[in-house]
Amino acid sequence: MKLKKISLNETEITTKEGVLLLISYETLVAAASYKNVYVTSTKYSKTTTKHITNWYNRNALCATPEVVSQEQLDETFN
């Protein structure tokens, strides 16, 4: 597992399987697994939305994100 601090309240984790996880503050809000990208449907704050958008663009993800519930994101990637 690789931990990368992006900013004060934004962290990216890369698992040994190659899955990218985005943590905003203390919450998992997005994940990318091979060609699938998932983002939470829960609206937290403008800052968290900015974290998700910047993370998506920074990683040059081409797949259209699938919006899933926070529970689905947590169950799948936690």
What can you tell me about this protein's structure?
By secondary structure, the chain is an alpha+beta fold. It has one domain (2-77). It has two helices and six strands, in the order E-E-E-E-E-H-E-H. The longest helix has 13 residues, at 46-58. 19% of the residues are buried.
Short description:
By secondary structure, the chain is of the alpha+beta class. It has two helices and six strands; from the N terminus they run E-E-E-E-E-H-E-H. A hairpin with a 5-residue loop joins strand 2 and strand 3.
Q: Helix amount, in percent?
A: 25-40%
Identify the strand order in the major beta sheet: 1-2-3-4-5-6
Described by the principal axes of the CA atoms, the overall outline is globular
- Stretches where pLDDT is under 50 for at least 5 consecutive residues are none
Note the total helix count: 2
Strand content: 35-45%
The termini sit apart by: 13 Å
Q: By helix and strand content, what is the structural category?
A: alpha+beta
Explain the layout of strands and helices.
Blueprint: E1 2-7, E2 10-14, E3 20-24, E4 27-33, E5 36-40, H1 46-58, E6 66-68, H2 70-77
Parallel strand pairs: 5-6
Antiparallel strand pairs: 1-2, 2-3, 3-4, 4-5
Brief descriptors of the model:
6 strands, alpha+beta, 78 residues, six-stranded mixed beta sheet
